């Protein structure tokens, strides 16, 4: 059986669903049927993940548009159901200091506010629609893996407090970290923000699906968007034997986009594998051995980061990078690598069984920040780089504004197209080199 890699394969229809822990907590249900006849809409949305579903929801409920969502597999296949469920005030790879250096302080402040608004938006969706998605306590800890990393965290904290006026940040000393949050080797302190929380991403996604259908949006599953053709002032999209027509289109498949649908996003993102382990429920002895006293979400400061949190049933979720090359994604050595990292981080769990392991693709932009862009009435969102649980909600609202002719903030994430990767099919070689350099850097610093 061939192994799916979006860098090379034309589409993801018919590919295997992830054997995730999330998939054991809720049933997907029956898929919505594909379109049986030709239909006309105001907007066609391609991709049934967080971004696609919420774009359609906002278009239908706030902008009174006739909308459909076309999903190649079934809602629950792609990155929105494979991630770790971290709702964070960030997106892309640029920190606040990097954004300020790149764009200036005023623009950095506005972009940062967009990221914070994204967390608030997800919170409000959960509260207003009474979504049961195992939402956990507020709090996100960025944990320094070295003394040098702690100094960098302190500099970023001071900048965020004084320039970005963020009062939700606090410094956690090494002793406080071990006494109140977690006790693990190579942890030298942390910065905590009250923005951010953990949740079950599949439960959230299926709740979005229900909201979309209740709003009167036509949802088509197992429906590959085969090709977009421009016909005068409209676009025609072939789905199986049916033709869907609309004046505007949103492409929202992120790393799982089809290369054959339309060239507008081709070569504008690098699909990168991320892998996750989930242990069996930890005993009280194991919880004591790890010093885990919180269900808040945590991530370290390594270039190749590890991220982790205690789930509601006291399983430990632990994630990090996967294979560089898609063809290697199922090789046992990558699971073994992640298990070794887990046990190095939590020596008290050296005999603990990991019951779940899965992986999925995130989409990285060449310039390390997301792009929500509209060109010739085709809009797209790309480049969340693994931080899409929260930001997808804000991106979806901005996409709905864009295709409805409403103004959006004049920020780089909304005003510029995603740059193309040169020699895109060879970009994994660059990724391989970056990983090896990052491993060395993380050891030295």
UniProtKB/TrEMBL annotation:
<dbReference type="InterPro" id="IPR036188">
    <property type="entry name" value="FAD/NAD-bd_sf"/>
</dbReference>
<keyword id="KW-0560">Oxidoreductase</keyword>
<dbReference type="Pfam" id="PF01266">
    <property type="entry name" value="DAO"/>
</dbReference>
<dbReference type="GO" id="GO:0016491">
    <property type="term" value="F:oxidoreductase activity"/>
</dbReference>
<dbReference type="InterPro" id="IPR006076">
    <property type="entry name" value="FAD-dep_OxRdtase"/>
</dbReference>
<dbReference type="GO" id="GO:0005737">
    <property type="term" value="C:cytoplasm"/>
</dbReference>
<feature type="domain" description="FAD dependent oxidoreductase">
    <location>
        <begin position="42"/>
        <end position="402"/>
    </location>
</feature>
<protein>
    <submittedName>
        <fullName>Oxidoreductase</fullName>
    </submittedName>
</protein>
């Amino acid at each position: 059986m061939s192994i799916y890699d979006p860098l090379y394969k034309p589409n993801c229809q018919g590919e295997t669903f992830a054997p995730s822990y999330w998939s054991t907590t809720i049933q997907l249900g029956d898929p919505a049927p594909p379109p049986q006849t030709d239909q006309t809409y105001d907007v066609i949305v391609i991709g049934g993940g967080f971004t696609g579903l919420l774009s359609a929801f906002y278009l239908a409920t706030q902008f009174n548009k006739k909308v459909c969502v076309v999903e190649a597999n079934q809602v629950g296949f792609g990155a929105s159901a494979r991630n770790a469920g971290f709702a964070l005030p960030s997106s892309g790879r640029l920190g606040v200091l990097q954004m300020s250096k790149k764009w200036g302080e005023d623009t950095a402040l506005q972009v940062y506010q967009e990221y914070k608004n994204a967390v608030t938006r997800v919170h409000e969706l959960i509260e207003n629609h009474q979504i049961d998605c195992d939402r956990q306590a507020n709090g996100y800890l960025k944990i320094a893996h070295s003394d040098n990393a702690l100094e960098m965290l302190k500099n970023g904290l001071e900048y965020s407090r004084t320039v970005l006026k963020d009062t939700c940040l606090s410094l956690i000393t090494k002793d406080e970290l071990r006494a109140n949050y977690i006790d693990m080797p190579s942890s030298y302190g942390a910065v905590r923000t009250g923005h951010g929380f953990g949740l079950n991403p599949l439960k959230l996604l299926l709740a979005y699906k229900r909201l979309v259908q209740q709003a009167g949006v036509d949802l088509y599953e197992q429906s590959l968007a085969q090709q977009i053709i421009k016909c005068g002032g409209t676009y025609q999209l072939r789905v199986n034997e049916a033709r869907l027509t609309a004046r505007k289109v949103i492409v929202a498949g992120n790393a799982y986009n089809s290369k054959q649908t339309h060239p507008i996003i081709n070569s504008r993102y690098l699909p990168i594998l991320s892998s996750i382990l989930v242990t069996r429920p930890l005993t009280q002895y194991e919880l004591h051995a790890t010093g885990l006293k919180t269900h808040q979400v945590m991530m370290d400061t390594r270039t190749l980061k590890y991220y982790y949190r205690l789930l509601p049933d006291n399983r430990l979720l632990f994630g990090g990078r996967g294979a560089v090359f898609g063809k290697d994604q199922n090789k046992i050595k990558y699971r073994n690598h992640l298990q070794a990292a887990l046990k190095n981080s939590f020596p008290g769990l050296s005999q603990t069984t990991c019951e779940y392991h899965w992986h999925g693709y995130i989409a990285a932009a060449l310039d390390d920040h997301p792009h929500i862009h509209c060109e010739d009435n085709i809009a797209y969102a790309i480049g969340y780089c693994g931080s899409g649980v929260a930001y997808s909600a804000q991106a979806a609202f901005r996409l709905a504004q864009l295709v409805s002719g409403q103004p959006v903030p004049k920020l780089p994430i909304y005003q510029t197209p995603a740059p193309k990767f040169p020699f895109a099919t060879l970009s994994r070689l660059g990724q391989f080199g970056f990983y090896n350099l990052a491993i060395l850097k993380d050891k030295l610093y």
